[in-house]
Amino acid sequence: MRNIIQSTLISADGVTNExxxxxxxxxxxxxxxxxxxxxxxxxxxxxxxxIYENLSGVWPGRTGDFADAINGMRxxxxxxxxxxxxxxxxxxxxxxxxxxxxxxxxxxxxxxxxFGHGRLGNTxxxxxxxxxxxxxVHPVIAGGAHGEFRQNPxxxxxxxxxxxxxxxxxxxxYSTAPGEGRS
Length: 183
Description:
This protein is an alpha/beta fold. The protein contains five helices and eight strands; from the N terminus they run E-H-E-H-H-E-E-H-E-H-E-E-E.
């Protein structure tokens, strides 16, 4: 069964919204290498309309390891409002999120990746469909709206890995399955 890995940028004060306004200075070589490594571990992306609109406005036409991976992989966009998904290999999914994602997890292939944490991430976490939560905590006080994590029910996490980038970003990898930790 495929795993779903959610990769979320978060400020030191817990903000996940609008990372373009506070996280860009930390998008260094280490960031790009880790992002590309994650993309090569996966063969499809899950996203809501907001992330789709953001990413599809940036990545088509770009090249490089990460750009080639994101542009080439299948993208499942969960939206009831988006009429069509024009970005390469994108498909709009309108069915029940839990049913559709459960079916995708059961298919063969590499893992699935989800960026950010919005309504789709909330739903997946609430229904036990997220397997790994990768939080990249940035050394900045963003002072904005905190985002969707505040709306999730209490969810115990098990630390499965961590490291600090030269930029001061602390990457924390958690399993959502109890007792899955390793040293």
